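It is worth pausing here to work through a concrete case rather than discussing structure prediction in the abstract. The textbook approach is simple: state the sequence, then state the predicted structure, then interpret. We follow exactly that order.
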Amino acid sequence: MLSSSLLDDEVACSRERRNKELEKNKVSGIMLSMLFVGMLTLSFDLQIVKAGGIFIFIRPEGSVDPPTVPISSADNVTYTFTDDINGWISVQRSNIVVDGNGYTLRADGTGAGFLLSGVSNVTIKKTNISNFNHGILTWESSKIRVIDNNVTGCQTYGIGVVLSKNVTVDGNTISSTYSAASYGIHLETSTFTTLTGNIVSSNLLGIGMQYSNYTTVKGNIISNNNSTGVYVRDSAGNTMTDNIMKDNRYGIWLCSSYNSLISGNIVANNTEGGIFLQDSNSNTLSANGIVKSSVGIWLKGFEIWYNDIIGNNIACNRGYGIKLAFFYGWNTIYHNNFINNTNQFYFESFEPLQKWDDGYPSGGNYWSNYTCADLFRGAYQNITGSDGIGDTPFIINANNRDGYPLIEPYPWNLHDVGIKGVTSKTVVGQGLSLRISVIVSNHGVFDENFNVSAYVNATEIETKYIALVSSASTTLIFFWNTRGFVKGNYTIGAYATPVSGEICTADNNVTGSWVTVAIIGDITGSTPLVPDGKVDIKDLVAMAIRYGTTPSTTPPGRLPYNPNCDINGDGKIDIKDLATAATNYGKIDP
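Step two, the predicted structure:
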């Protein structure tokens, strides 16, 4: 287990550990609808009993012990909560899915909410998990999927992965209360773990790894953790890409770790440091936006060797753009933009030689305080004519110089807004309104104001003007009134107007899914959930088997919510949807 003392930058890791081995008809229509709902209810023998503060086991042969708890299964493969549970669940069976169905699992602050020990191919999903020592703990297990859970208030690990391999943690929200040892996600002696799309906030430490190799950390939002966003110790071969790490003490901290890739992240407004490499060698830092922290990039230790720091935007840091505090080492630092940092660089005591450029004509770094002319070109800058490289080196200290400083910032998305996603249901009744969700992001360094438009085919629906701060995302809601549009297939999309200085506009115009405008109530046919031009028994059945569902809850015996069956788009499939469809029962598209 990681000790909280590791979080102090003076004692975090020692040199002795450096060489350790490392390691998802109106009346008849209504009557038919209600008949199907009743038949479905009678066809399942389900228990709905409250549990209270007890140990629950999903046994290896498939039984739930005790059998009175509100967990149902018709096939010993999918186990579904039917109510909140006060207690602890030990999963002893492999090849199953445990679906919390939006309900809550809680206890008294002790133990593990879900304990998976020695199992394989288990999914834990859609559960609110609160007030345990560990929310979910995977021990000596493999091929585990932890998806779409909300984990809060756990004392040690929100999600712990120990001595395990091939574990996927995706789309979860994990937060706690800054307790002495609270970690959002903790990996120890585990391999090939994938952490994607999680929101990890308000913990002592966001994501911690120790002796864990070949981990993928991608597309997470890791913010407001009292210490470090991502802390990696004695590990190798890990990849951290396209994450947002902001408002922590440190954004990313590698200690005695090797051969990791840190790329495409927004690392912003961390009080002590953006990216901190301590006694860590042979890592690559590329295309990161490291802004508004005390120190942008910090290299510290006795020896620091063979790290490549290439193509990053290091801007507006309050102390130093880059700080080097080590006795010996050789690192490559070029094609970075050092912009408006209080101090662009700082060597602490020793000044070992580093490589600050990639030779001619590739060039070195952009320094916003470099003011020399560009009148000459060539490897010796002695041929008349400019080449985008300063005529004289940028002097760092007696041992270090950037021989080919760039006159303009290296191509990087200083200003960059875009569309991350466009979603809606895929069938809408003619004359009704379709709700379209558009996720908009500001990937750049600067706060931006810009327009976002939603469109159908080539027709603009609506335009919204938004203000979005650096590294933030938001969801905009648009409504398309289909009155006057003929029945048929349409393509929805969204467009973010490029902001001043934006170079990369590939994600400014994003196409979503196609949408079918159909007879109201025509939602399915011979192909499931694809309209067939008539409203008949198949449409009513499709709604009936999802009756009572919402995006977050599925009653016992029902199929999960599908927005196409939510005719009026109010977030619940109920009698109003069935009645609306029933009014068109028997209609056929001419």
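Step three, interpretation. The helical segments are 26-42, 537-544, 575-582. The radius of gyration is 28 Å.
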